[in-house]
Amino acid sequence: MNLRIGKHEFTSRLFLGTGKYPSPEVMAACHAASGTECVTVAVRRVDLNDKSKKSILSWIDRTRIRLLPNTAACFNAAEAVRTARLAREALDTELVKLEVIGDEATLYPDLAGLLEATRELARDGFTVLPYTTDDLVTALRLEDAGAAAVMPLGAPIGSGLGILNPLNIRIIKSRVKVPVIVDAGVGTASDVAAAMELGADGVLLNTAVAGAQDPPSMAAAMKQACEAGRLAFLAGRIPRREFASPSSPKEGRIGT
Amino acid sequence: MNIVLNGERRTLDAGSTAADLLKDLELEGKPVAIERNGETVRKSDLPTTKLADGDKIEVVTFVGGG
């Protein structure tokens, strides 16, 4: 079954970024290899001293890939709302990855500001995907405020530490009705598989691909991990047990 | 008249509109958006939005991000 967020439907459950790639050509190769149908972009002032620069958007295959503008580096609700409105006007999209950052060292979100901005943007017709912590109560409040999905972090942005609190992701998934996209923390393919095995509806990552030694190969690995993790989740894993349970029959051994 | 454009002072012809500014900056039709004193200017309002002395204008576009 496809993933639905607001009015948008996705076959791929992998969301990629557009930052920190060695070159735009490598980025385009990664997007293609990952099979992603949605990538994030950041909103920044036009560089008035160098207008020769080609737009990042020209390396994104928009016949296959939807744009998800973010409000990265916004430190309060008002800034994030302004940034989202600018992005909507420039791109004709109501999608927004909402970030309201509360702390520079960890890039953890300011949850009060995030709730306030989610409420305001949802009321204004945006499809809001808030980047949040792995806290259940916040996730429920974001859903209540009109979020179209919730995006708990697996670990701090760009840390590559993987899914540090699988229990919290699973708890969020079991309680909110909107899609849960694990955003941030992925270091390698198994982290994506782990998130998907927990039941996450999708994974958003950037640095793990952009910073890999061979980014397009890592992008392909992420695609497979995402599909494998999803399939494993749907297949239903066996319960964990403390002791062994033999796979071969005990009866009929020779000499018994 | 003087405005502050992306944090820098700039002199414009009196009566300039938001659309004129984008044309001056060679940004017409590009993936950009413009904000006047904290309010996004809708695309359809660009030609009729007259800028005034002291306006704080932001012109934004997109860059790589996660």
List the helices and strands and how they pair.
The complex is a heterodimer of chains A (256) and B (66).
Chain A: E1 3-5, E2 8-10, E3 14-16, H1 24-34, E4 38-45, E5 66-70, H2 77-91, E6 95-98, H3 111-123, E7 127-132, H4 136-144, E8 151-152, H5 166-175, E9 181-183, H6 189-197, E10 202-205, H7 207-210, H8 215-235
Parallel strand pairs in A: 3-10, 4-5, 6-7, 7-8, 9-10
Antiparallel strand pairs in A: 1-2
Helix pairs in contact in A: 1-8, 2-3, 6-8
Chain B: E1 2-5, E2 8-11, H1 18-24, E3 33-36, E4 39-40, E5 56-64
Task: Describe it.
The complex is a heterodimer of chains A (256) and B (66). Chain A is of the alpha/beta class and 256 residues long. Chain A has one domain: TIM Barrel (Alpha-Beta Barrel). Chain A contains eight helices and ten strands. In chain A, helix 2 packs parallel to helix 3. Chain A is globular, with a radius of gyration of 20 Å. Chain A starts with a strand and ends in a 21-residue tail after the last helix. The mean pLDDT of chain A is 97. Chain B is mostly beta strands and 66 residues long. Chain B has one domain: Roll (Ubiquitin-like (UB roll)), CATH 3.10.20. Strand 4 of chain A pairs antiparallel with strand 5 of chain B.
